[in-house]
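dumping this here so i dont lose it
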């Protein structure tokens, strides 16, 4: 089932999410619905707060980036095959010189800006079977993980912009929170029940 994506301005996007256990109600259904929702909106990641749930769960599928001709065939292959569920994640370390990349967000449609992030991360997480891992990721995979991880920390990419950029997009953000935007996927706007 495709879930409505929560729009900018909803308080759930600003909450630090809580850990979950394997007993979380209807967990497999939630995972299936989140995957369906992410693919329906052509996303490369989706965090539970974006579907209204303040829990530490997000998905990443970097395969759309694999079509970039500027990447080496090795990088394309890695991106094409990277699909991962992250539960109760905690970034332990971020390394390297920050680099800019143009980011967008399903909760903030039609706003794209360069965000600076470190290229390499070490992250502790559980997969969909609640098996635990500590792994390092770099490049675009690390970038998508960092973006989704921010969601479970209650942080949006727009908060990482300069004060000038924030002022420039203020009106567009206000319109999104009021539902004055057209998107081709289901969204839920603050102070509104359901709207397409």
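and the seq i came up w/
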């Amino acid at each position: 089932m495709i879930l409505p994506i929560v729009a900018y301005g909803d308080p759930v996007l600003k909450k630090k999410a809580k850990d979950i256990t394997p007993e979380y109600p209807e967990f497999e259904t939630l995972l299936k619905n989140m995957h369906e929702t992410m693919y329906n909106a052509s996303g490369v990641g989706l965090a539970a707060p974006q579907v209204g749930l303040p829990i530490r769960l997000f998905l990443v599928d970097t395969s759309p980036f694999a079509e970039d001709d500027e990447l080496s065939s090795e990088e394309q292959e890695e991106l094409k095959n990277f699909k991962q569920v992250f539960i109760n994640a905690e970034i332990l370390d971020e390394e390297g010189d920050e680099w800019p990349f143009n980011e967008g967000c399903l909760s903030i449609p039609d706003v794209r800006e360069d965000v600076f992030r470190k290229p390499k991360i070490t992250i502790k997480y559980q997969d969909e079977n609640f098996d635990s891992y500590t792994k390092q990721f770099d490049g675009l995979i690390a970038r998508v993980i960092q973006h989704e991880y921010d969601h479970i920390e209650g942080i949006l990419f727009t908060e990482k912009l300069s004060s000038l950029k924030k002022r420039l997009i203020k009106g567009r953000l206000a319109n999104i929170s009021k539902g004055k935007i057209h998107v081709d996927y289901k969204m839920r706007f603050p102070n509104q029940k359901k709207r397409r």
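The helical segments are 27-40, 73-80, 139-152, 163-177.
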